[in-house]
Amino acid sequence: MPPQLKTLIPLFAIFIVLFLVGRHLVVPESFGEAGHYRFNSIVENAEKPLQYADKDACNECHEDYVMEMESDMHAGLSCETCHGPGFAHYEEPDSSRLLVPDQREFCGLCHQRNFNREKKLAQIDLKEHYPEKKCIECHNPHLPWDITE
Amino acid sequence: MGHNRVNQSRRNFIKAAAAAGGLLATGIVNPFNAVIFASEQPTDPTKPWWGYGIDIEKCIGCGRCANACKTENNVPREPFYFRTWVEQYTIKNDGTVQVESPNGGIDGFEQIVPDDEIFKSFFVPKMCNHCHKSPCVQACPVGATYDTPDGVVLVDESYCIGCRYCVQACPYGCRYIHPEKNVVDKCTLCYHRISKGKTTACVEVCPTHARILGDLNDKDGELVKFMKNHTCLVLKPHLNTGSKLYYNALSGEVR
Amino acid sequence: MEQHYQYLYDMLSQVQGYIFPNELDLQWGLLIVLYPYITGLVAGAFILASLERVFNVKVLKPTYQLALLTALAFLLVATMPLVTHLGHPWRAYEILSTPHSTSAMAIFGFVYLWYLMVVLLLEIWFDYRRDMVIWSKQEKGFKAKLYKILSLGVTDISPKTVRWDEKIGYFITVVGIPSAFLLHGYVGFIFGSVKANPWWSTVMMPVIFLFSAMVSGIALVLFIYMAVSYLRKQKIDMKALDTVAKYLFYILIIDFTLESLDQIHRIYEAEESFEILSLLVHGPLFLTFFIFQILLGTLVPLAALGTLQFYKPKEFTRRVIYLVSSLLVLFGIFFMRWNVVIGGQLFSKSFYGFTDYKIRIAGSEGLLWSMVWIILPFMILAFLLWLLPPWKKVQE
Predict the structure, then answer these.
(1) Summary mean pLDDT of chain C
(2) Looking at the structure, do residues B13 and B56 belong to the same domain, yes or no?
(3) What is the ipTM metric for this complex?
(4) Which domain holds residue B21?
(5) Most buried of A85, A127, B74, C162, CB within 10 angstroms?
């Protein structure tokens, strides 16, 4: 064997062995258990904190409101659609209050007239429909057709 | 002798034809499944295999889904990071298509085109398609994004190197680089919720039930029923991504 | 952070039509333009060197070592733009420890290592071993020690062993040619395999990348040969220069033909994405595509070098033409990479609009880092030429 190869072959062998050892050391735990990824990552993703509870959670304490809602046009709406994320409130009711949106623009997100939702739900023009009043002054959002005036 | 040989070869031909016919027949049956299941059947039919349905006819463009998603998943509030967003399509009488999604629809939409110029108009919520043959998972060089056994495409934040190849590979624009974490971020189908038996934040807050989360293995489930009762399409089917996000009333202008 | 947001808000006003909201922030910037550019220079320079050795083109002898050292200088830097653009540069090792077999990008680490360790370093080592042994005796102090280390203790310079250098070196060159093709064809595949992007997704991409790599590498060696000769106040070997320029001309023709074929195919098939791509090249890419890449980077050098195939002016005129042509080609290929990388991200995958890209000065994707990665190879080359001067080698 030429003297060059006598030096080079062991050098490359050492390099490959070092590479394999290094690789063994840095591949994280649970990698490759179910595919080419770190299996524990699934658990980490599943353990992220919740922000929204859900309607069932609201129903545990506020059955009266939930029932009221179900009797009118807003039936089927989730409480958190308007009141915002409620998981913290669900865990510790006294620690945080939920949102009570009273801005006209908020109602307008659904009810501002728009060509392609016209046939689907009640539409008004925010600029023309009692522009000086808040929506909730006349409409009870839980019973939107129950108009107080 | 000669007669026999002809017979033999004819018999062979019939056999071959029958085999070919059989192949063709199964060929017709299998793609039918493919329409439902995006590609081959999931590995374990007793476990959930998550899919998603969106009924464009029901969407009113309130943007509550995009808003709730940002809250639930700590998505930066700046208007260039979205796990889900809503697009407003307006096709005018002259055939021009106008698409917009101001702040992903979170602040609502305004239709500036006068009614008499509108040919048709509709809202399209967009999000990760949780593709079964996802190009992003294929492209990730280190295995930091993956398809879970229950059919959700997730990101391993602590392993992603931030090369952005998956962002390039996603045909639907559903990935972004998280400006603080410097790793890719995307819809997890609220994996932390669905694995606790809750639905996703976007489905929870949708006021018109335009969004449906469901188990494709559950033949009596809401999603499979939705797919049965409507003509559903996926986005960019020619790319064969095996998308599991099914749209009812999807118009050809939507890409 | 605030700066980044401000940049993006500014971009928001530049958007034309509709883009998906996540597409505003263009993901691959100047650094990723440099990456295929630098790897292309490496592959091209190496292929030019191999021509001399494998096909025994004797006139190219004066450029052989220069081309090899140029290839090495640029290869050493080739991964740096990639690593600096990562969101987490310190996790880069994962691409070697857990390469994902389905990813077109994952094998880059191995292709790179193969090319660096097995091809370039070995070829240079075998080519210089005898000289390093001799120099380690002639020189004193640090430099002598360095040569000793670099020769790896193989100090046998008997004719028999030197013949082995020659033989194995030849073998490595033969392996090296497909490796160089692999290296850059593979870089093309990284883009060509992205089916989501119609500007990238073409089977021609690896071939186009390969030939444009050869063009840019040859132009670089042409330029460096002239520059080094000028700095050393040595007379240029006009025969070698003419031959290199001739190769540049022919490969430029092939490259231009392939790229034209790709575009003609695109225009003729006129698929779903055709309208947006047409708007792209006539709009945001007009300057860099038609003027920089095609006119200045291709047609002008083609005309200049083509004329010289029929008409031979005086040496000085030829040298000027070669100098200008090589610089124009280098300029043009840079913008070819730009048009692929940046162009492919300017249009929305909704095909309804465009985002914008402005080079930032600072930051990991900024101009400053890019300048570092383009200047550094020249400094490495200067060092290599000081350490392993081709002109001091033992002549056969």
Answers:
(1) 93
(2) no
(3) 0.92
(4) 1-37
(5) A85
